[in-house]
Amino acid sequence: MMIDFALHSERVAEGKTPQEAIYEACLLRFRPIMMTTAAALLGALPLAVGMGVGSELRRPLGIAIVGGLLVSQVLTLYTTPVVYLFLDRLRLRWVRVRGGALRPTA
After folding, report:
1. Predicted model pTM
2. Which of 16, 59, 84, 97: CA 20 to 30 A from 41?
3. What burial letters (b/e) apply to 51-77, b meaning 16+ CB within 10 Å?
């Protein structure tokens, strides 16, 4: 969601720099990303903390789901903007090395 929004604001809508575009995308898409993860996490929470008959079989699955969602959420929120900016700089370096002009893609 962040990348699509950043590409749209960078290329089509407002012509922002990649840094401005990904920053705005992070601010505007933070809540939907967190709400989606929170819904999945709260859905898996009964598996992780459940008691009763057969809970010893379901608890590891719940713990794995909750832990995976937390780790992936942190990694996604921190690494997506970094990778976006890294790939943009790599693209600019590639264009400079090839000696070509930047052509906007629509």
Report:
1. 0.72
2. 84
3. eeeeeeeeeeebeebbeebeeebeeeb
